[in-house]
Specification:
4-stranded mixed β-sheet, 23 helices, 592 residues, mainly alpha, 8 strands, 63% helix, 2 domains
Length: 592
């Protein structure tokens, strides 16, 4: 009788298959555990932020947050790096990176109970008007692109308007890594470092401009991914068109970049005349838009073409690069150093991507040239154009928006370049790996710190938040007026509080009855009153502008020289009212 036995090779094959299957299940369990850890860590950070939420006037949220929150943010980032170590799929890396971004962008909306900044109150008042009346004619009209989207979220998903508006941009920014994961690349390290290089400070508050940045960047990412993936052109062009509709100055560069990428896809040569002409047109679109704006609104822009002939022009231009001031804090020195070298790092990493990534080399060259064209356009406008309708300290920031768009574009090739550097460094010995991970963790901590409003030895933050005292002051003024027209001189926090309560209640011609800090006449009067001209005559000029006999002046306790200003106003006011033990002081004046 013969007994048949299985060949040893077959037994080894079965054992090997079972071993591979067991190993595969173990790796998947590790991926799931790391992803769950990242999700729990993100919820922990957001819980800490919500726990210390305040309605007091603050200039930065960092004193309220526990010291360990930066460690938690670093841990989230390192969990994403561990997912790359264990060869996690791209979609898991994208989700983990999105959670890492959300742990930074959503902190401020959760801490500021009443809202962030000043513009958000204007936009929410407009969205509330659209929601209740069903019609709105905003100024400027293109803001309707965001208002309609928020209105749809509220109506379709029954989300409270405050949260639909406040979290729109922070959560949309958190979804950018998921879109970025569609871009082909030879290394998956580019996905987690996306959270490290993306400038997040612009995405902590919901404004049409920030929302336009997100949609425009999505359009560029989808256009790059469409070169190797099946992505419907409608997705690309709808994002680009939507970005343009929400904010033309934000959407124009992204739309021009998408057109250049489409030309590159047809010609497969960045030196082709159609590609180069698209890049040139993208750079020229910004100055052209300002020229068109100046023709439609005479006096809003002032051109100084003769500045090009002055020898000191280039010494005060955007190319002037000042090193950080010397301070004594190691942490402050570290954060300021990273801010200082960030533009140079983006450029160097983009060059590395062009050098090493043969598959997307022409795409990275195109994006780098487009970013360089935007920087040059911003330089031309900085030298040749002035914006008298803006407050003096906002005029430089107005042009820095185009430098920000250039940085957002450079982030795409820079992530590929940094991903290759990380991949190369982590192939060395254990000590080199630990040192490099420590450097990346420190960079992520500094990145999170400067993404939120911060105030330290090297940077003075002046953006005080709207407080409960501001809301109470606006409510008291409205009740004290007894239905009669009145005009208010106050800072932007009190104005924002009034808008949140009463919307756009009254205009006297083109003058809003509260100061709007965009260089308007009422705000200029307020600066004079709290400056060196706090006379009754100056205050009564507000009554003429606001077409009312009653003028209220509100001084916040944190205002510069508040004690001196309060003493002067108390001596000439008809009545005085203290709000919340002097956090806000209201002075009433009756003018003929």
């Amino acid at each position: 009788m013969k007994i048949r036995t299985k060949p040893r090779s077959t037994e080894r094959t079965i054992d090997s298959s079972e071993s591979d299957l067991h190993q595969d299940r173990t790796v998947r369990a590790i991926h799931l555990a790391l992803l769950i850890t990242t999700a729990i860590g993100t919820l922990f950070v957001l819980h800490l932020a919500r726990h210390v939420a305040t309605s007091e006037a603050i200039v930065t949220p960092w004193p309220l947050l526990p010291h360990g929150i930066l460690g938690a943010i670093i841990a989230l980032f390192l969990c994403t790096l561990l997912l790359v170590f264990t060869r996690a799929p791209s979609f898991i890396l994208a989700i983990s990176t999105a959670l890492s971004v959300a742990s930074i962008t959503t902190v401020v909306p959760l801490i500021y109970r009443l809202g962030v900044g000043f513009d958000g109150f204007l936009h929410r008042a407009s969205e509330q008007l659209l929601l209740t009346s069903g019609a709105l004619h905003p100024k400027p009209p293109y803001y309707i692109g965001q208002y309609v989207f928020v209105d749809w979220l509220v109506r379709a998903w029954h989300i409270p308007l405050f949260w639909a508006d406040t979290l729109l941009v922070p959560l949309s920014a958190a979804l950018l890594p998921c879109v970025f994961a569609l871009i082909p690349g030879s290394t998956r390290w580019k996905i987690p470092v996306f959270a490290l290089l993306l400038p997040l400070s612009v995405f902590i508050a919901s404004t049409p401009q920030s929302f336009g940045y997100i949609l425009g960047l999505c359009a560029v990412i989808l256009a790059i991914a469409a070169q190797t993936r099946r992505i419907h052109p409608l997705c690309v062009w709808s994002c680009a068109a939507w970005s343009l509709a929400i904010h033309p100055l934000a959407g124009l560069p992204f739309l021009g970049c998408v057109i250049s990428l489409e030309a590159l896809q047809r010609t497969n040569d960045w030196r082709h005349w159609s590609v180069l002409s698209s890049i040139f047109a993208t750079a020229c679109s910004i100055p052209a838009a300002f020229v068109l704006f100046g023709l439609q609104a005479p006096g809003r822009l002032v051109w100084h073409l003769d500045h090009w002939l002055q020898p000191d022009t280039w010494n005060i231009s955007l190319f002037t690069w000042q090193p950080p001031a010397s301070v004594t804090s190691i942490w402050t020195d570290w954060t300021q150093l990273l801010i200082f070298i960030f533009p140079l790092v983006l450029i160097l990493l983009s060059i590395i991507a062009i050098w090493k990534d043969a598959r997307c080399r022409q795409t990275w060259i195109l994006i780098t040239l487009t970013a360089a064209g935007l920087v040059l356009a911003a330089e031309i406008l900085a030298i040749s154009c002035d914006f008298p309708f803006l407050i003096s300290y906002e005029r430089g920031d107005y042009l820095n928006r185009f430098l920000l768009i250039a940085a957002l574009l450079l982030v795409l090739p820079a992530c590929e370049g940094l991903g290759r550097i990380v991949n190369a460094c982590l192939k060395r010995d254990a000590w080199s790996i630990m040192a490099f991970l420590f450097l990346l963790g420190g960079a992520q901590a500094a990145h999170a710190y400067v993404s939120l409003p911060y105030h330290d030895e090297a940077h003075a933050e002046h953006g005080w938040s709207v407080s409960a005292a501001d809301v109470e002051a606006a409510r008291w003024i409205n009740q004290n007026a007894h239905g009669q027209p009145y005009t208010v001189l106050a800072n932007q926090s009190v104005s924002a509080a009034a808008i949140s309560l009463y919307g756009f209640q009254r205009y006297a011609g083109d003058v809003f009855y509260y100061p709007v800090p965009t260089g308007g006449p009422l705000y200029q009067l307020f600066l004079r009153v709290v400056g060196d001209d706090g006379s009754r005559k100056t205050i009564c000029q507000a009554a003429t502008l606001g077409q009312s006999s009653s003028v209220y002046v509100v001084i916040d306790a944190y205002w510069w020289q508040a004690k001196t200003v309060n003493a002067e106003l108390a001596s000439i006011a008809d009545a005085t009212q203290r709000i919340q033990q002097g956090k806000d002081i209201i002075y009433r004046f009756t003018c003929p």
